[in-house]
Amino acid sequence: MSDRPDALQLPPDLEELSRIRHEFEGLMLRYKFGIDEMMTKLNILKEEFSYRDDYSPIEHVSSRLKSPESILAKAVRKGLEPTVEQIAEHIHDVAGIRVTCSFISDAYRIFDMLTTQADVTVLRVRDYIAQPKKNGYQSLHVLIEVPVFLSQQVHRVKVEVQIRTIAMDFWASLEHKIYYKYDGDVPDSLLGELRDAAATASRLDVTMERLHDDVKALDAGTERYIDPLAVGSLELPDTLLRTFWPADAAPVPAPDELPRPNISEA
Ligand code: 0O2
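^ thats the input. predicted complex w/ 0O2 below
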C-alpha cells in the first residue's frame, strides 16, 4: 500500500481543487519549457554572433514566467474565467522574454532572425517602436508559438518576446516602477515628464544609430586606418604591424615618437 499523500481519498471538492492545481502546474511547466526553447535559440544566436562578427546585436536576454497572482489579476481585468483553458487562450504573456540591443536596426534584425526560424510561428506583432504608445512606451512585441516536445505529445507554446534598445528598456523599467508605485494613478506632471524622457530616449537612439552608421562607413572606407596611439602601446611584432601599416605609408613611429594625449594631472 502506498503512503503517498496523493493516494489518500480526498473529499470531492478537494479532489477537484487538487485536479485544477495539477492542471495549472502542467500549464505553467509548458510555458517554462517554451521559455527554455526560446532562450536556447537566442543564446545560440548571441554566441554565434560574438564568434563570427565580434559583435552581437543581442546585448542581453532575460525571461520571466508570470506569477499566478499576476495571471489571476490579468484574467480578472480581462473579464475571464480563471480556468486553464481561458488563461491558455486569452493571456498571451504568461511566458515572456525580453531582448535588449544597442540600436533600433538591431531590434528588427533580431526580430527577423527569430521569426524566420522554421519551427517558430508568428501569431501577432505589435510594433511600438514604429508607433509608440501615447505614454511614450517603445518596444517591438512579437507573440510567437514554439513547439515543445514532451514524452507523449508535442505542445505548441505561446511566448511573448519583447525586443527593445537599452534606452527604451531604461525608460520602460522606470515607468513600470512608477506605474506600480502610484497604483496606476500617476500624477499628470509625472506623466508629462515621462513623455519628455521618452522623447529624449528616442532621440538618443536615433543619434547613436547615426553615429554607429558613420563609424561603420568610416571603417569600410579606410580599411587600413589604425590609431597611431594604439600602435605605440601595442608593441606588435613587425610582421603583424606591417599587415596594418601599409608599406608605402610613413615608417611606423617608434613608441616614444608618438604624440601623447595632453592629459593634465588633477
Ligand atoms: P508585466 O508586469 O511586464 O507582466 P493582450 O492582452 O496581450 O492583448 P497586453 O497584455 O496589453 O494585451 O499586450 P502588450 O501590449 O503586448 O503588453 C504586454 C506587456 O508589454 C506588458 O505586460 C508590459 O510588460 C509591456 N508593456 C506594454 N505597455 C507598456 C507600458 O506602457 N509601459 C511599460 N513599462 N510596459 C508596457 P504586463 O502584464 O502589463 O506587465
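Residues 66, 70, 74, 92-93, 126, 133, 135, 137, 141, 172, 175-176 surround 0O2 (CB under 6 Å).
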